[in-house]
């Protein structure tokens, strides 16, 4: 097991009808900016629940944060924060709204030339405005971690930020919100969370027995509840396990003491930036090719995953490892997620080269748990995913 | 799944040679009281490591906190805290030293008549002096939770306290400390952590699939590493998994959203208070009888535990459930832990009645996950454990 440091101070308030407790978590004298997305919260009742909870706290609103939170839109929100002298941010949404809010929390106290520097200066964000979240879409784990990914349409870039200052002060997780989520987004959430676990697990054996089992526990639970959630999103038992699994998949715990990969995300982000493909779907496109390409260095963990998650007991270690990749791809396919880039765009030719070039230009030293994947490897993997 | 609230702000610094990082976690202008136990840290080198790390920070020492931290001894330490105007506490030890330090952290700012009120007023401790820990004995999880248990020899009482103010600011977990722990204490640690998981798991199915699997992950890992740790405490892989499992067994995570029992601890504490039996051993004495006595209400989870932890696949649900109790008792016995009170004392007659009477006198409304166990049930369970 590798050395690690772990601290996660986010206060999780989980369960039925917990949105009503919102005001208890925000200082009474705060000046709040409530941030949300495309307006679905106005149809499903969450907006009203939040407004009711905030009735005695001074607050403003900023809606319209898009999926893949867009820098230009966030700059408009930043203007509101400055103009209204906002002291507390409240994200009401999924990963995109929460990530956008994290950027704003950092930008609200940033003293550099331009807030874009937060994304490019490679410095951890240690100071930020306080903020909380009301999660409306389980998937990214952003409600209990200190990372965010921001998109800039102008330059077709999607960049990550993070740091100890970016943990939400609190997050409210009411599994009842799942009832009104469209199937497409539920499928994305399941795929996103499952792949988050894979990124922190599918590397090489590192003697971290408990972390491996925790990762496997999350995957087993997602596999168990996925059909139930998709069949009936109002199944509270299934919804609550789905929601908690998504949070635990990326709240930092399972990555402690182990090597992590994240190459699937790095390549996937480029597909979203280039083609606007849903984040989760880009992961499902890249993951099978990535595991095939890196088969030799990952086969021990692939085989363990085959045995413990997919109950593959027959065959050699390699047989099991291959079966695991196939079963993972089938899992995505069975939920209606295509795992080939050509199913999403006719303009796929040349994508592998474009992405490889971007990595070269950014001066990346190497992707994957060994930091060994060069732009030419990326090119091959993306090509395999056509 | 039940509603829950979860926040754990302790900063964990885990791994090889991490004690050297101690000073980074303590304010430079702090006036520190370093608290420790019977002096084993002076033999195994931990004392020297801590002193070296603290060389630039003003600090005092208080040694001699006994196993089952004794109120009278802690009052002496409290006097030092007041006299020296200590601002920060540092526990260097196992659960007893850490629990004692938590009591002192609370007592240092307590404004009631007598510090004993902290144990008896049934109020959560929200304010306390800041403190950190250097864990020398994995077992209790106290290094990452907000609870403590204090003993008072004068009245043969052992009482619990807790509250959000009692999370350590940081805890340093260096698995290398295990190398010098005597076998008896290692066995106690394994038993204690394993029973902690059982207390939060062995109730009734509550639809908390992920929490169940996390609990099972910890038990599986403890079972896997126990023989290795006992065979060779310098096996770092085994030691690190043992240490992290003990912490995760009682840092609050696996109890969220599920019913918990804790009757084994409640009865066990009495055996320690009456006879001075090691805490972990009292749990091993009580647990089998407790599960047998409450078989009907626990049999579903006992059977799940039998299947997933002990690989019992044959027989009826009841058969599996019984087998699970037997296997648990054998696990303790195989490590050299006796599971009958009469193996520890010849004075066992009447113990069941004494303990039942104590519960009656304290006005306990009922033990267990259903709060349904009355003093007469306690009497029967303890009797079964003779």
Topology record:
Two copies of one chain form a homodimer.
Chain A: E1 4-14, E2 32-36, H1 40-43, H2 46-53, E3 59-62, H3 71-83, E4 88-93, H4 95-107, H5 117-120, E5 131-135, E6 147-152, E7 157-162, E8 170-173, H6 183-201, H7 209-231, H8 236-249, H9 263-275, H10 279-293, H11 295-310, H12 317-334, H13 351-361, H14 375-384
Parallel strand pairs in A: 1-8, 2-3, 2-4, 4-5, 5-8
Antiparallel strand pairs in A: 6-7
Helix pairs in contact in A: 3-4, 6-7, 6-8, 6-10, 7-8, 9-10, 10-11, 10-12, 10-14, 11-12, 13-14
Give the strand line-up of the largest sheet of chain A.
1-8-5-4-2-3
**Strand segment count of chain A:** 8
Helix/sheet category of chain A: alpha/beta
- Oligomeric status: homodimer
CATH class of the largest domain in chain A: Mainly Alpha
Range of strand content of chain A: 5-15%
Instruction: Please report the distance between the alpha carbons of the first and last residues of chain A.
Output: 37 Å
Helix content of chain A: 40-55%
Mean pLDDT figure of chain A? 96
Shape verdict of chain A? globular
Q: Counting H and I runs of at least 4 residues, what is the number of helices of chain A?
A: 14
For the sheet with most strands of chain A, the description reads: 6 strands, parallel
Tell me the series of helices and strands of chain A, N- to C-terminal: EEHHEHEHHEEEEHHHHHHHHH
Calculate Rg of chain A over CA atoms: 20 Å
Q: Under CATH, the topology of the largest domain in chain A is which?
A: Dehydroquinate synthase-like, alpha domain
Provide the CATH architecture of the largest domain in chain A: Up-down Bundle
Low-confidence stretches of chain A: none
Pair with the most extensive interface? Answer: A-B, 41 and 41 residues
The structural domain count of chain A equals 2
* CATH homologous group name of the largest domain in chain A: Dehydroquinate synthase-like - alpha domain
